[in-house]
Design goal:
By secondary structure, the protein is α/β, with parallel strands linked by helices. The chain is built from twelve helices and 13 strands. Helix 1 packs across helix 12 and helix 8 runs parallel beside helix 10.
Length: about 350
C-alpha cells in the first residue's frame, strides 16, 4: 500500500483527495493535515465522512510526515509548499503540490503574477508539470510534481493539439472560461457569499488572472518556443464565476492557418488523445457541458470551424475539483508509482 499524507485536507481540493483516496485499492491515508482544524475529528469537519474516517486532523509538519508517507499531497495556498520542502523531505518521499509553487519555471514570472517571493527556486528545474496526458514520461521519475490548475488543465488540453500541430495562428488565441464557486476555495470571502453569486455571472481577474502565464508557458512548449529565454506566445484569458458548485467550461477561439480544414482539426485531436482514457472527444459540432463530467476525472472536448471567420472554436469541460485538482493529483500519483493511471478514478459522472 502507498502511504499517503495530505496537508490541507480540509479545503475543497483536500477533501476531494480524501474522497478519492479512500476508494483507491493501493492507497492508505496516514495523515489528515489541517492548519485550521488541527486536533479536531476529520468527520466533524466533513460530516459526509462520518463512520468512514475516524482520524483526527494533524498539523502541517512536513518533516515529520515525510518519515511516515510515501507521497505527500499539499492542497494548500500559494507559498506554503515552497516554504516547507527541503532536501531531506525529497530524499524520503514524493511531493505532489496542488498549489502554483512549482508550476512556472521562471522565478520572475512567478513573482510578477503571484506578487510574492519564491521561497524554493532551487527546486523549479526538477519539478515536473503534472499534466498527465502531455508529460507522463517525465512525471514517472519525478520527486516534485506540480499539479496543474483547473482553468489551465481545461484550456491547455483543449488547445494543445492545435498548437503542437501548427494548425492555428498562435497569436490569436482567446480563452473565455467559466468556473463554479468551489474553484475559489473554502475560505470565507465576501464576493463568494450566496447572495453575491446567485442569479449572476461575472468576469474576474480580467487580463490579470494568475493562470494566464501557466497556460502561455505550456502552450509555448507545444509550439516549440524556448520559454526559458523569453520566447512565449500570448493569450487573452478571461475567467468568469457562475453560480454552481463544480465545473469548468473553457471556450477557446483561434484563427486557423491557411488551408486548414475541420478534418485536420479532428485528426490532431485523435492523434494526441484517441487512446487517452480520461479525454473524451465529442468531435465536430458537438460540445461539452459541465453536468456530463461532474464528479469524474474526464475531460470532454468538442469543436467547430467557423468557415465565415476562418476560426476554430474549441470547447473543453471538466470537474474543477477532480480532473482540475484532486483527480489529476491521484492520476499523477498512479504514474509516479507505476500503477494504471485510472486506478481509483473510474468514477461515472454524476447526474443529475
Amino acid at each position: 500500500m502507498i502511504k499517503v499524507g495530505i496537508i490541507g485536507s480540509t479545503g475543497y481540493a483536500g477533501a476531494e483527495l480524501v474522497r478519492l483516496l479512500l476508494q483507491h485499492p493501493k492507497a492508505e491515508i496516514v495523515w489528515y493535515g489541517s492548519r485550521t482544524y488541527a486536533d479536531q475529528k476529520y468527520a466533524d469537519v466533513y460530516r459526509n465522512m462520518f463512520e468512514l474516517v475516524d482520524e483526527t486532523c494533524m498539523n502541517e509538519n512536513m518533516d515529520e510526515l515525510a518519515d511516515r508517507a510515501d507521497v505527500i499531497f499539499t492542497a494548500t495556498p500559494q507559498g506554503l509548499c515552497a516554504s516547507l520542502v527541503n532536501d531531506r523531505i525529497l530524499e524520503q518521499t514524493k511531493v505532489i503540490d496542488l498549489s502554483a509553487d512549482f508550476r512556472l519555471k521562471r522565478v520572475d514570472v512567478y513573482e510578477k503574477w503571484y506578487q510574492r517571493t519564491h521561497e524554493a527556486p532551487g527546486y523549479l528545474p526538477e519539478a515536473v508539470y503534472g499534466l498527465c496526458e502531455i508529460n507522463r514520461k517525465d512525471i514517472a521519475g519525478a520527486r516534485i510534481v506540480a499539479n496543474p490548475g483547473c482553468y489551465t488543465t481545461t484550456s491547455i488540453l483543449t488547445l494543445y493539439p492545435l498548437v503542437a500541430e501548427g494548425l492555428i495562428d498562435r497569436n490569436t488565441i482567446i480563452i473565455d472560461a467559466k468556473s463554479g464557486t468551489s474553484g475559489a476555495g473554502r475560505g470565507a470571502k465576501l464576493p463568494n457569499l450566496f447572495c453575491e453569486v446567485n442569479e449572476s455571472i461575472k468576469p474576474y481577474g480580467v487580463a490579470t488572472h494568475r493562470h494566464t502565464p501557466e497556460i502561455e508557458e505550456q502552450l509555448s512548449y507545444a509550439a516549440g518556443l524556448d520559454y526559458q529565454t523569453g520566447e512565449s506566445l500570448l493569450i487573452n484569458f478571461t475567467p468568469h464565476l457562475v453560480p454552481m458548485n463544480r465545473g469548468i467550461l473553457a471556450t477557446c477561439y483561434a484563427s486557423l492557418r491557411e488551408g486548414v480544414a475541420a478534418a485536420d482539426v479532428q485528426g490532431a485531436y485523435e492523434k494526441y488523445y484517441k487512446e487517452e482514457y480520461f479525454i473524451r472527444l465529442l468531435g465536430k459540432g458537438s460540445f461539452p457541458e459541465t453536468r456530463w463530467v461532474e464528479g469524474s476525472n474526464f475531460v470532454d472536448i468538442g469543436f467547430t470551424v467557423d468557415e465565415r471567420t476562418g476560426r476554430v472554436i474549441a470547447v473543453g469541460a471538466l470537474d474543477n475539483l477532480v480532473k482540475g485538482a484532486a483527480g489529476q493529483a491521484v492520476q499523477n500519483m498512479n504514474i509516479v508509482f507505476g500503477l494504471p493511471e485510472n486506478m481509483g478514478l473510474q468514477m461515472v459522472p454524476l447526474f443529475p
